[in-house]
């Protein structure tokens, strides 16, 4: 048995395991493995937390983007309504301006017509008076004629004005 190499291999293996146990190699290996497992678990927990935070941030940014889009639509709608209101107001003012200018022009035309009619009446009265004066002067002579002409001229003037 002492000459059997298998026996010495077994003795060497037992001594090797004894030295390993004496030096606490299994505890060191398991301790290292445990530490590594804890570190991996910690990293996984941190990664999970970071992922949750990233999802929360993404949800927050998406919500803010929707709110901003909604607000932009409201601003556009309000601006459109204001532009339509300003356009309607401008059209109304323009119509009022055109109507007032038209009325003013019509009033000036009516005033010019009235003035022209007055001038024609005055001119025709002056012509009629002058004609009557010539006719009466040619037919009637003397102080009686002068008195008749003056009375006729006064009557014509009073009736025409």
Automatic annotation (TrEMBL):
Sorted UniProt keywords: ATP synthesis, Cell membrane, CF(0), Coiled coil, Hydrogen ion transport, Ion transport, Membrane, Transmembrane, Transmembrane helix, Transport
Family per similarity comment: Belongs to the ATPase B chain family.
CDD domains named among the record's database cross-references: ATP-synt_Fo_b
One of the record's GO molecular function terms: proton-transporting ATPase activity, rotational mechanism
Chief site of localization: membrane
One Gene Ontology cellular component annotation held by this UniProt entry: plasma membrane
Membrane topology of this protein: Single-pass membrane protein
Protein species of origin: Bauldia litoralis
Name used for this protein in its record: ATP synthase subunit b
Domain of life: Bacteria
UniProt subunit comment: F-type ATPases have 2 components, F(1) - the catalytic core - and F(0) - the membrane proton channel. F(1) has five subunits: alpha(3), beta(3), gamma(1), delta(1), epsilon(1). F(0) has three main subunits: a(1), b(2) and c(10-14). The alpha and beta chains form an alternating ring which encloses part of the gamma chain. F(1) is attached to F(0) by a central stalk formed by the gamma and epsilon chains, while a peripheral stalk is formed by the delta and b chains.
Subcellular locations according to the entry: Cell inner membrane; Cell membrane
Transmembrane segments: 6-25
Function of the molecule: F(1)F(0) ATP synthase produces ATP from ADP in the presence of a proton or sodium gradient. F-type ATPases consist of two structural domains, F(1) containing the extramembraneous catalytic core and F(0) containing the membrane proton channel, linked together by a central stalk and a peripheral stalk. During catalysis, ATP synthesis in the catalytic domain of F(1) is coupled via a rotary mechanism of the central stalk subunits to proton translocation. Component of the F(0) channel, it forms part of the peripheral stalk, linking F(1) to F(0). The b'-subunit is a diverged and duplicated form of b found in plants and photosynthetic bacteria.
Coiled-coil region list: 37-96
């Amino acid at each position: 048995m002492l000459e059997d190499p298998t026996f010495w291999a077994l003795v060497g293996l037992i001594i090797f395991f004894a030295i390993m146990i004496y030096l606490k190699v299994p505890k060191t290996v398991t301790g290292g493995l445990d530490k590594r497992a804890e570190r991996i678990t910690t990293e996984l927990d941190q990664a999970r937390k970071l992922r949750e935070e990233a999802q929360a941030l993404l949800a927050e940014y998406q919500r803010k983007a929707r709110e901003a889009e909604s607000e932009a639509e409201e601003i556009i709608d309000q601006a459109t309504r204001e532009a339509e209101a300003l356009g309607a107001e401008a059209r109304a003012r323009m119509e009022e301006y055109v109507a007032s200018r038209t009325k003013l022009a019509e009033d000036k035309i009516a005033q010019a017509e009235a003035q022209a009619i007055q001038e024609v009446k005055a001119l025709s009265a002056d012509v009629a008076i002058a004609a009557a004066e010539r006719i009466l002067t040619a037919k009637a002579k003397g102080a009686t004629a002068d008195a008749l002409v003056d009375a006729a001229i006064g009557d014509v003037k009073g009736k025409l004005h």
